[in-house]
Design goal:
The structure is a single chain. This protein is an alpha+beta fold. Helix content is about 60%, strand content about 10%. β1 and β2 form a beta hairpin. It is globular, with a radius of gyration of 14 Å.
Length: about 100
């Protein structure tokens, strides 16, 4: 058994969130959305240079696992990071990856 302050449910949710984040396209999306940015799927796919259907697929995964939220704004849907503190995880991963 793991010795941790996490309970079983928290471990399950945290693991699912980290697994969802652990993909190059999803990390790129999260990088765009950090610092409170709210973007549409069109803005995301054009900025990253991927197909809109691919962006929608990855946004859906991130939303389903509790990493992102979305809200309607007229005809558009804006996507944003659910918990601002996730930006610190992205910064940490960037710092750690650049040190190698």
């Amino acid at each position: 058994m793991l010795q941790t302050d996490f309970n079983d449910n928290t471990l399950r949710v945290a693991t699912a969130m980290l697994k969802a984040m652990a993909h190059p396209i999803r990390l790129s999306i999260l990088h765009l959305l950090k610092d409170g940015n709210k973007l549409t799927v069109t803005q995301i796919h054009e900025t990253i240079g991927i197909e809109q259907s691919t962006a929608s697929h990855h946004l859906g995964i991130l939303r389903d696992k509790g990493v992102l939220c979305s809200k309607r704004d007229g005809k558009n849907t804006l996507y944003y990071i659910k918990h601002k503190v996730l930006g610190q995880i992205l910064d940490c991963m960037n710092t750690c990856a650049c040190e190698e």
